Amino acid sequence: MQLMTNDKLRLVYNDTGKVGQPTIILIAGYSGIKEEWLLIQKKLTTQGWRVITFDCRNHGASSHRATGLRISRLAMDLANLMQKLSVTSAILLGHSMGASIIWSYISLFGTAKIIKIITIDQSPKALNTDDWHFGAFDITYKNLALKADMILTTSLTAQRVDQTMWDLLKERHRCHPFNQQQTHPLLENHLVQDWRDVVMTIKIPHLMLLGGKSMIWGNKFNQYCQEKYQNNSTQVIILEESGHLPHLEEPLSFMAQVIAFINE
């Protein structure tokens, strides 16, 4: 299935379940694709959820072009998708850059159409600065142009991904190659965002799922989140054996935490 955004770009999406059922939208990270969510999509659908997944612009089967490569535009794409599919009440789940898309959506449109959010292994501020030491690797404003691609050149998993899933993702990427050079402006735009004010003021239930062995953020960031963000609205849970992709590395533990949270 596909839709046209308001800037005339084609987004490809899957919509399982029925209109009127509780809805959850799953958003992959930078270079990620909607097929990453197949296992949890099937699980949630069997439990009576309407599950929507999609490929962001310049990702997967959606259109690839060198315009709109910024997080705010991807948040607008999410808004276009929700409007097209008549989604007025949903849970949003985003991995890595997908979390930034959610925070941007909230910053732009508020939470009137959102029940809960789930963010996966993403810092609200990805660059290291004098007042923030929990950014990605050792990336700063000064070395951003040189080091941004570490995100794609570093192994991001601590556990072996199921071979069947791995083969499927490789095949889908072969059919729809990710153009790293063309999409690089989106990566840089993602990395320079600062969502700390958004995260601190979210009033709806928010689950932060973090990888205990994440090679991007590390244990100090996980400890900071537990101390700073854990409150009546926000839960911080660490999947101890996962790297940056817990939904692929520990799918059963990941699904258990997500299902428990959305059913609360």
UniProtKB/TrEMBL annotation:
Residues 22-251 form the AB hydrolase-1 domain. Pfam families: Abhydrolase_1 (PF00561). Gene3D superfamilies: alpha/beta hydrolase. The keyword Flavoprotein does not apply. The chain crosses the membrane at residues 85-106. It comes from the Bacteria. Keywords: Hydrolase, Membrane, Transmembrane, Transmembrane helix. InterPro entries: AB_hydrolase_1 (IPR000073), AB_hydrolase_fold (IPR029058). The keyword DNA damage does not apply. GO terms for molecular function: hydrolase activity. This is Alpha/beta hydrolase. It comes from Periweissella beninensis.
